[in-house]
Amino acid sequence: APTGLGPPRPRYEVLTREFVEALAEYLSSRLVRGDLLLEVGAGDGHLSVELRQRLPAGVRIIATDSGSRALCPCPGASVECLAFSEAVETLGPALVLSAWMPLGEDWTAAFRASRSVKEYILIGDPGICGLPWETWGHGGGDEDDQDSAPPFMQDGWTRVDLFEVTRHQIGCTDERWSEERHSRSIAFRRTCADEEVLPERLASKRARCGDHAVPTATAAASAAVAKEENGGRVSVIPAAWPASDTMYFEKYDSAFVHEEMLRDRIRCNAYAEAIAAATPQLAGGVAIDVGAGSGILSCLCARAGARKVYAIEASAPSAELCREVVRTNGFEGIVEVICARVEDVQLPKGTVADVIISEWMGFFLFFESMLDSVLVARDRWLRPGTGRLLPSHARLLLCPFSDDLWRRQRSEALHSVCGLDFSSLGPRLIDEEASEPAIQGVSPNQLLAEPRCLVGFDLHTVTQAEATQHWAKVTWTAAAATPRSGALVHGFAGWFDVIFEPPPWSPMDFLAAQPLSARFVSAASPMSAVELPQAVVPMAATAIAAAVEQPRRRVVLGTGPHQPRTCWHQTLFYLPAAAAGVGPAAPLVLRPGERLEAEVELTRPTQSPRNLQVQISSRCCNGL
Fold first, then answer.
1. What pLDDT does 517 receive?
2. 308 CB-near residues (< 8 Å, 6+ apart)
3. 6-57, pLDDT tens digit by residue?
């Protein structure tokens, strides 16, 4: 629904409430109290007015415009008359927002040259905003320098497509029957520690990439090791593996590990359903399977119509198994198995992936996960704008639980063994149990409250830095059914969900959707029939039929106590003996009306990023 501020005005972008709220949500995640958000080329300032109402307190926003279009500020707006370069230089913003930069001009070099700017966001149709190469990194640059990295990469910046914002955009150039002409939002983030890095000092970090491949500075540094053309063939750039990687990949040498994962029908069926729902993106396209293992996901992508699938697997025995599975199922002409880490792989020049798929999750989501490798593949090869990651989102949940029945049974068993009392062993068992997380199931009736989300992110936009460390403070209130005497909190249970979101609605989807009038009027009403212009009917008929045949489905793979058991089970963090109600110290008891607070810190050590350190501090407090 359009926002209702001021009279109608001609606009390049329709400021729908959904678009403004999605943009504000992203900006809120990137800005902190005291930061300045600068909108350049703000026109009448309508967008800044809407964002100001939604951004956190303490975040400043200033709208500026050169005044060349002589637009009057809309009600409630204050637009300073400043050219973009003067505004950036004098105001020192942390983040710059530019909507519909004039065609033929590039303002982004000034954004990157500013010491204060950490990120800038471009809104508009790349085909008619700014300059293709200088502004967006599309097209290949100068004729004599076709293989150079885009200017933003040379300056030490990385590009992030904001899919969750783009999906709500409607621009003046959008063509309902064309995927190429569509307004979008794209962020560019500073990645270099030195803010005055010159392009020539970044020469070693340039990557040889195709028109659509926009790798990060890290990916560019890896790709630059091999300067010769690879002639359309896959090449592997050997690198020393960390010890944690060696131990991790060796675990997948075992055939029993693959059997356990294949026997997990919840896992397999969720991925199969998500791949089927992604058929429009896969058909005739390119897919990359990160950590291919037995090859099940690669084969499912091939079956869904992918023209080419790169199955990347670092474990040599697993890669050989993958080749056999591919051969057995008749996909050898489509699936190419690469025995290497993703970080060491160089795909043929110009390769872009329509879909990147991976079963990257570990216990408690992050332990021994492949998330970093997925993000490397995303930054190197995912097609900007339309490329999809499967899964697309992830969230980690935590909930207090009680293990009273098991504790009582254990205590009774130790109380009398051959007529002797061994109950003194109980506290030692509990402390040993609490020394490290337990990977096992917990029953829903053991949960003492509703789960709380510790971490949630979109794989299309999350950075490696953001995925390295997390801190959360969560609160639970005792359920109404809690006994008056209270419930003993024996620990915290953790699990995760991953979501496979369908791709953003395209103009073609809107054209194919059932008209609103058909939902609210009777079939007999003359309004129930919506007629398309005759010129549009023949162009849209085929696409409408295809859209109807491919229903949009949202698939969720849940690993919690209320779902069927998966190979991830749940991760249980038991409290030490005293807190669990054994020993001289007061136990952790949750009584009716009380709140349980927990501070949780998750850290992935830099030297061994596949490991996970979890620290939980908890206390009960009066609900008042």
1. 47
2. 286, 287, 334, 336
3. 444 444 668 888 999 999 999 998 898 889 999 999 988 999 999 999 999 8
Tokens of 256: 């029993």
Under the banding of pLDDT at 50, 70 and 90, the label for residue 197 is: very low
Rounded to whole angstroms, the Cα distance separating 380 from 378 reads 6
The per-residue pLDDT for range 114-172, each reduced to its tens digit, is: 999 999 999 988 878 899 889 988 764 443 443 467 888 888 888 887 878 888 888 76
pLDDT at 543 (0 to 100)? 36
CB atoms within 10 A of CB 146: 10
Residue 563 has pLDDT above 60, yes or no: yes
- Residue 308, SS3 per DSSP: strand
Rounded to an integer, what distance in angstroms lies between the CA atom of residue 389 and that of residue 82? 40
| pLDDT at residue number 257 | 83
Cα 119 from Cα 465, distance rounded (Å): 15
Residues 6+ apart with CB under 8 A from 198: none
Contact (CB, 8 A) for 600 and 616:
yes
List helix spans (H) across 132-201.
Answer: 151-154, 163-166
Round to whole Å and give the CA distance between 46 and 140.
Answer: 35
Taken in order 362, 368, 372, 373, the sign of the CA dihedral is negative
Could you tell me which of 571, 578, 567, 558 has the C-alpha nearest to residue 618? 578
Q: With beta carbons less than 8 A apart as the criterion, state whether 454 and 472 touch.
A: yes
Helix (H, G, I), strand (E, B) or coil at 150: coil
Residue 191: CB atoms within 10 A of its CB come to: 19
Is-cis flag, bond preceding 391, omega within 30? Answer: yes
pTM of the shown model? 0.57
CA distances from residue 411 to 42, 288, 490, 548 in whole angstroms, order as listed: 70, 52, 15, 61
Whole-angstrom Cα distance, residue 433 to residue 169? 52
CA proximity to 218, closest of 75, 340, 376: 376
| Model pLDDT for residues 386-406, shown as the tens digit of each residue | 999 999 999 999 999 988 777
Which residues are catalytically annotated? 359, 368
333-354 average pLDDT score:
92
Q: Give the Å distances, CA to CA, from 289 to 255, 285, 482, 555, 613.
A: 19, 13, 47, 18, 28
Residues contacting 26, CB < 8 A, separation 6+ = 162, 164, 165, 187, 461
**Contact at 8 Å (CB) between 591 and 482?**
yes
Q: Cα(612)–Cα(94) distance, rounded to whole angstroms?
A: 32
User: How many CB atoms are closer than 10 A to CB 450?
Assistant: 10
Angle at 457 between CA 453 and CA 458, to 5 degrees: 145
Token readout for 484 is: 């008056």
Quote the CA–CA distance of 548 and 154 in Å, as a whole number. 44
Calculate mean pLDDT across residues 185-213: 47
